[in-house]
Write a structure and sequence with these properties.
alpha/beta, Aspartate Aminotransferase, domain 2, 2 domains, globular, about 15% strand, Aspartate Aminotransferase, domain 1
Length: about 350
């Protein structure tokens, strides 16, 4: 039985598994000095219109910590939405790794705006206060919403005018780009961000992310930051090899399109149930909703999912690249029987 708890729970795409098997031949130089990493690096660079430095890493928490460490000093403030992954789900790792104060900002849809940042643009140059240093956003957001390109550009322009840098956590960036029908670059690099986590683990890869550095001022120290963040793999080929089918065979788009399509199908069916209320618009592969608590508890007996806000009975459902129409139909049928 497949769950609707998280796209982290999904299987590995066969093409990715095949790439791993092919990479598992003989010996290869470690720490990224191998042909798979060389090729994958060029493939990532080709995704973007701006020059960039791609560095492959293990996971999202490490990539966020590494990128934020690059752009801040311990006396800085990092701003993020109150639902931001670095504030809620990373056990304080970015704060510990950077030494920075993580300032959360309340939002209704998980997205930051210049207007929301404005009240915090104070105390510049005052030595008694932590200094505004960086902005963290995620694409898609933790509430499943999507930053449109013009929203990211406005945010980056505002941050840069105040001397702040912007990191984008792109754990689900494939879902965002696929939903908008644009390239990965159009919802990230070309909008002016300084660093990006190009995510793959939630979209068919076994476990691989890539920190993409656009700001040339950050490139020189980036490899040291990766090593110090414990994100430099000795057998790097097994991480970088996963990006070969991901980027050469449009796998990122196909997997994300399918996950989004299954979410839309689930949304359509759930919308017809009078006791189901959606708390966020369904823009990607995440659904946030409420239903009578007795009903959701019975549903939880068979299907695993997360309660997002237990106080109001809000739950989150997530579809994946390997979610089938049959999975959705069985889920809906079971819920109707309840």
């Amino acid at each position: 039985m497949k769950s609707f708890a998280s796209d982290n729970n999904s299987s590995v795409h066969p093409l990715v598994m095949q790439a791993l098997v092919q990479a598992n031949e003989g010996h290869a130089l470690g720490y990224g000095d191998d042909s798979w990493t060389t090729r994958a690096t060029e493939l990532v660079k080709n995704q973007f219109s701006r020059p960039c430095e791609p560095l492959f890493v293990f996971n999202g928490t490490g990539s966020n910590t590494m990128a934020l460490q690059l752009m801040t000093r311990p006396y800085h403030i990092i701003f993020c939405a109150e639902t931001g992954h670095i504030a809620v789900d990373e056990c304080g790792a970015p704060g510990k790794g950077t030494g920075c104060f993580i300032r959360t900002i309340s939002t209704t849809d998980g997205k930051l705006t210049p207007a929301l940042l404005e009240p915090y643009m104070t105390n510049f140059g005052v030595e008694h206060h932590s200094q505004p240093g960086a902005v963290y956003i995620s694409q898609c957001t933790e509430l499943g919403t999507i930053y449109k390109p013009h929203e990211i550009k406005e945010l980056c322009d505002y941050a840069h005018r105040h001397g702040l840098m912007v990191h984008m956590d792109g754990a689900r960036i494939s879902n965002a780009a696929a939903a908008l029908g644009v390239s990965i670059d159009e919802v990230s690099g070309s909008c002016g961000i300084d660093t990006l986590t190009l995510g793959g683990t939630k979209n068919g890869l076994m476990g691989a992310e890539c920190v993409v550095i656009f700001n040339p001022q950050l490139v020189k120290e980036s490899r040291y930051a990766r090593k110090q963040s414990c994100q430099l793999a000795s057998k790097m080929r097994y991480i970088s090899a996963q990006f070969l089918p991901f980027l050469t065979q449009h796998l990122w788009r196909d997997c994300a399109n399918h996950a989004n399509k299954m979410a839309a199908k689930l949304h359509e069916a759930l919308s017809q149930m009078p006791d189901v209320t959606f708390t966020q618009p369904v823009e990607s592969n995440q659904l946030f909703l409420t239903m009578p608590i007795e009903k959701s508890r019975k549903l939880h007996d068979k299907y695993y999912f997360y309660y997002w806000n237990e106080a109001i009975g809000e739950l989150r459902l997530v579809t994946s690249w390997d979610t089938t129409e049959e999975d959705v139909c069985q889920f809906i049928e079971y819920l109707r029987n309840i």
